Amino acid sequence: MKPNKNNIIMLMLLLLLLINDVHCRRGRSRGRSKSRMQIGLPITGKYRDPESDQYYNNNDGAKITLASHFDFEYVLGHKIAFLCLARGNPRPTITWYKDGAEIFSHLYLHVHQWYIGKDTVKSKIEIDPATQMDAGIYECTADNQYSVDRRSFKTDFSIAFD
């Protein structure tokens, strides 16, 4: 069989399609694979320079050791309370937020704070009576010169039929 011009063109087109198909598949498979190495950190998990390692892995950093439940449903007109216990050296400061804005005590919302020993602080907010406006995301933030730790609490109300 003598190759003619049409057979050669068809063979070239088929070859181009095969090459293009292999290239496309290879590109997609690369996108799906995940790198097993963390970028910017050595495999040991320690920071490259000792000052950063000492700062970020400091055992004296603020740590929240006890906090209220994440998702809380309250009854309108009743009291709700959130608790946050943190430790660190120096003793952490606890700040409360609702929907991203810092909250302070007022007529229906009270912030209580107790110092336990030289490195622990306990803080509690109480809202009494709770209204629809009290639904949202509350956040407890503990911080000292070494670190910041946060816990969030989502609240929503229910209506009790007595």
UniProtKB/TrEMBL annotation:
Source taxon at top rank: Eukaryota
Places the protein is found: Membrane
Membrane-protein topology: Single-pass type I membrane protein
Keyword Nucleotidyltransferase attached: no
Biological process, per Gene Ontology: cell-cell adhesion
Keyword entries, A-Z: Disulfide bond, Glycoprotein, Immunoglobulin domain, Membrane, Signal
InterPro entries xref list: Cell_adhesion_signaling, Ig-like_dom, Ig-like_dom_sf, Ig-like_fold, Ig_sub2
Record CDD domains: Ig
Domain Ig-like, residue spans: 77-158
Signal sequence interval, chain numbering: 1-24
One Pfam family cited in the UniProt record for this chain: Ig_3
Gene3D superfamilies assigned: Immunoglobulins
Family annotation (SUPFAM superfamilies): Immunoglobulin (SSF48726)
GO cellular component: cell-cell junction; plasma membrane
PROSITE patterns cross-referenced by the UniProt entry: IG_LIKE
Record-level Gene Ontology MF annotations: cell adhesion molecule binding
Keyword Signal tagged: yes
Protein name, as recorded: Ig-like domain-containing protein
Source organism of the structure: Chironomus riparius
Classification of source organism: Eukaryota, Metazoa, Ecdysozoa, Arthropoda, Hexapoda
